[in-house]
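QA checklist item 7 of 12: single-chain prediction sanity check.
[x] sequence parsed
[x] length recorded as 204
[x] structure emitted
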Amino acid sequence: MELKDNCGICLHSMLRKPVIRLLPCRHLLHDLCHQNRLRLQNVNQGQCHICRQDIQSTESVVRKVYKKHSVQDRKRIVSSANRGEDWVALSIQLNVPYKTAYQWIRSGDEVPLQKGGKKPKILTEEQIDEVMSWVEEDCGITLKEIKSKILLNFQIDLSVATVGNYLEGRVYRVKTVHHEPVTMNSDMNKAIRAEYVRTLNSYI
């Protein structure tokens, strides 16, 4: 078993809670899960939950600590490789693993890219204003029709959901009107429905 596996008792990840290794079988469990199980069994050592071997002792599992390298180290290694110098010797000197240094050089970025952030808009404000003018001219236009017009006029292929996001907060959305027939609630139809319910109740 490895830390990436789940605990054999609670079936949850072992990446966050304290973990122990059972000896001699060397299976891994959450420390708290193991203690609770021993309490329920009312025994001192008990058996391994996975292989049923008698547990002689336990040991704490020390997680590997990943070293974080500075941006300055990355800049020095990437710029050294760009100048054609011996970047391998420099990475050894800076205590940076070969694989990490190689990935930096392969990406070509001296500074790591920022994670997340706001994505740039696909449509410009002028294009959005033109889309709004289409809606004002024809209030019955659908999102699919707007999508087609955007593709035709701007050569930009957007999804219907993205078109809706652009219009969110700019226009009112009206649900489809339900046309009710005039005779739907006439006296005759009400009498027919009442008779139907009485007949239905007689069979219950």
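[x] summary fact logged: The CA atoms of residues 185 and 191 lie 10 Å apart.
[ ] second reviewer sign-off
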